[in-house]
Each structure stands twice: as C-alpha cells, then as structure tokens.
Amino acid sequence: MTSIVGAPVLVWVEVRGFRAFGTEARRLDLDAPLVVVHAGNSQGKSSLAEALEFLLVGRSSRRDLLGGAKAEYNDSLRNAHLPSEEQQVYVAAGVRGSDDVVHEVRRELTCDFAAGTDCRSRLLVDGREETSLAALGLTPTDPPLSAPVLLQHTLRYVLSTEPKQRVSYFKALLTLTDLDQLRQRVTQAAARFEQSPVGPAVAAARALLRTPLAETGRALLGVDGTDVVGAATAVRKILLEAARLATGMTSADLESLTDNLREAVARHRDSVFPLRAFDPGAQVPDDPAPLDLTRYAQALRSADRAAASLAPMIAAVLSVSAYQDLAQPVECPVCATPEALTPARLAALREQMRRTGAVDEAAAAALAQVGQSRAIVGRLRDAMPDGVPASAEWTPEQLGDAGRQLDRLSTSMFTAA
Amino acid sequence: MHEPPSDGQYSAGVNDLLPNLEALLDALLDDTPAGRDANELSRAAAHAGSWEDVDDALDHVVAGWTDS
C-alpha cells in the first residue's frame, strides 16, 4: 500500500470518555502501512470510527443520516457510564503533516447532543485552539458525510441519497474534487474576464455603433473569436466591405484599404479646410552661397592694366592738333612707320578710347548692382523666418508629432460624428 | 508557485493541489480550439501551488489570449 505524497497521515489516536470508551484513555498506534482493527460485536469498533469522525469534523453523522427521532441521540457522544463529575471527553491524534512533523490534534466535547441543539466541541492543534484542520491538509467534504469513516453509514447514505449527491460523494471518495475545483476556478476566471474592461479592438468596434458604420460595428462584435483563423478572415471581409460602402472604393486587401482610407480622409480634410496647403515645403537654407566674382574681377583688372598702359599714349596721339583733321596717311609718331597713321586708324583709336571708358563705367555700375542685389538677398534671408510659418523650421520629429496629433483630432471628430 | 519540471512531464503526486490533473491532461488531446484552450488552461494550473496561484495562472493565460 502506498501513501499519497503530501497527504496527512494518522500516526496514533487516543480516545477518552467518548461513546464506548471509558475514563481510561485508550491509545492506538496507527503508524503502519495497513491497520486492521478487529473484534467481536459491541467491542467498540464503531465507537472508534465515530471517534475519528468526531475528531475530524466535530460531530457524528449517524444522527443526520439515520434520521428517526433526534431525541434518541441526545447525550449519545459522552459515555453514558461516566461519572457526572467527569468532564474530560476527548479524541486526540498524532497527524503527520506535509512538513513531516507529527502534530497533536485534540478535540474536546464541550456539549453533547441535546434537545434541539447540536453537539459542540473545542479543537486544539499543538495546544492552540483552531476552527478547522485545513492547515494540516484535512478538509471535510460536504455534509452530511463530512468525514465518511463508517461504511454502514456511507452505504446507507449512498444508496438513499439523490443521484447528484451520490456523484459528489464518490468524487470526494475517489479524491476527484480537485478537478471540480479547477473547473470552478476556470468559470470564475471567465467571469472576471467578462467583467474586465474591453480591449482596444472591441472598443473601436463599439465606437462604430454610433457612426454610419453601425452595421459594420455589429458585424465585428458578432465574429466568433474562438476560431482565430476564421475570425481574422471574417474581420478582413467585413472591413473591406464596409470600406467599399463608406468610400465607394474597392480594396483588394487591408494594405490597399489602408492607403485608400488615408487618401479619402485627406480628401475629406481638404474639402473642409485645406490643411495640406499649410504643409511646409523645402527647408529655407541657412545662408545662401555668396557670389564668387573672383574671376570676373581678375579679368577686369587685367583688361584695365592693358588699357591703362596704352591709353596715355593713344590719348597723346589723339591730342595732337595736326591729327584732328588728318586727310592723308602720315608717319606713325610712335613707331615711325611711314604712312601708318591713317584717318581710318585715327577714327578706330578714338572709338577704342570711347569704348574703354564705357566699359569702365558699365563695370562699375554692374559691381554696384551686384552689391545692391547681395544686400537685398541678405535682407530677404533675414526677413524670411518672420514671413513663413514656424512649422517651416520644425524638425522631422516635430512634424511627426503634429501629424499624429492631427490624426487623433480627426479620429475623435469622426467618432463623435 | 511550483516550477514546471524541465522535461515538461508531470508525474503523479507532483501537484498536491491537483492530483488528478495529469489524467485530465491525458484526456485533453482533441485538436480543436476548445480542446487546445482547455489544455492550455490546465497546463497553466499545473504549476500552481495554491488556489490563488491557480487564479493567477488562469488570468495570465486569458490575458495572453486577449493580447494576441
């Protein structure tokens, strides 16, 4: 015979003044794999069994089970032959608990069955008063067989009771009540789940009930969630159909549905107020690149130097009065070449001098214009931050936050609608 | 709470609170949604050392379902 791991074990039992037991305390050693108590009739076997029952639950089921006149059981627990002054009626036992320690359990009869009243007792565990033996792993089953120790009582009860109670009894007898308790805990967990706040998906579906998509919301709430794959397919189908009815757009899958809805929301926003017109464009550059006039200035200075070296000499030639009205070619006064200075060449030199002066003036004017333009660009650059929305200088993170806030605002407005 | 054994097997008597759980798990073999759910709940309870632990384990499983 094997013991159940962790189950409490009766090591010994001691009875005094209970039923057939007299004033001498009787102790029985039970610390063995199998204990057999045998004796002839009326030797106290039933009293011993009832003593164990009394120890465990503080009563005798005989009175409840056998029925009849309750008065027959008045003063039935205390040995009828005890002297009236004798008060010590008890059943004690050593119980080895799951901690492998033998605890002394003692139940004292404080009041026997009487007319119209139950018996009363006091339970002590290791000298401390307790209300039950649950701490030792000894839990009573449902009444009336809270501690089924007497076979004749048990058989009588099992044969006469209702089927449901009979099943309960056998479950208790076969230690199957743990699964009943598990089932009860699962039921309670289900009740807690039913009372818990709904999740975001159900909340969103319920929110739809207040919108033109109420039918969609009802359909979503009606989806059987026990079949995960089937539920996903059903939800996808409902959403696609609802979007088609709401927007007139047919979407092949949830991805394209999302894109279509975003586009529809954007169009709806634009129709109410064109917020997208306020979206900032390209960022304003911090500082426009400066104009590079280096090559132009170098070329101009080179041309100036060349012109400056020839201009005095040409000016001197042109200032000679004899050449003012020259009609025939004459010798060049610079290189002495005969007939090199002709009227046409003099005219060309005059034109060259005129052009040189004009180019200088134009260059100076152009530089002045460039300077003015740079000043204008500078002023524009300085004024631009004041002339564009502050969002033009937002970072990508700030732009993302603003977009999300706008989405939430749109969603709440849509839901409220 | 009791930790599950490393080999995933629950021998008789390991769970004092639910001595018949192993037999229940042996019976919960049908590969249906309800059967799988019952199996998951029962296995969660197998680690419990008290009925309060059972409640926590069951709530944990249900929370996992709602979050998935």
Write the layout of secondary structure elements.
The complex is a heterodimer of chains A (417) and B (68).
Chain A: E1 9-16, E2 26-29, H1 45-57, H2 61-66, E3 90-96, E4 102-111, E5 120-125, E6 128-130, H3 151-160, H4 163-173, H5 177-195, H6 200-208, H7 214-221, H8 228-247, H9 254-272, H10 294-319, H11 343-387, H12 396-416
Antiparallel strand pairs in A: 1-2, 1-3, 3-4, 4-5, 5-6
Helix pairs in contact in A: 6-7, 8-9, 10-11
Chain B: H1 21-27, H2 33-46, H3 51-67
Helix pairs in contact in B: 1-2, 2-3
Structure description:
The complex is a heterodimer of chains A (417) and B (68). Chain A is α+β, with helices and mostly antiparallel strands and 417 residues long. Chain A has three domains: 9-141, P-loop containing nucleotide triphosphate hydrolases (Rossmann fold), CATH 3.40.50; 200-272, no CATH class; 294-388. In chain A, 50% of the residues lie in helices and 9% in strands. Chain A is built from twelve helices and six strands. Chain A has a six-stranded antiparallel β-sheet with strand order 2-1-3-4-5-6, covered by helices on one side. The longest helix of chain A is centred in the last third of the chain and has 45 residues, at 343-387. The model of chain A is unreliable at 1-5 (pLDDT under 50). Chain B is flat. Chain B has 68 residues and is mostly helical. Chain B has three helices and no strands. Residues 1-14 of chain B have low confidence and may be disordered. Chain B is 56% helix and 0% strand. Chains A and B meet through helix 5 of A and helix 2 and helix 3 of B.
Brief summary of the model shown:
The complex is a heterodimer of chains A (417) and B (68). Chain A has helices spanning 45-57, 61-66, 151-160, 163-173, 177-195, 200-208, 214-221, 228-247, 254-272, 294-319, 343-387, 396-416, and strands at 9-16, 26-29, 90-96, 102-111, 120-125, 128-130.
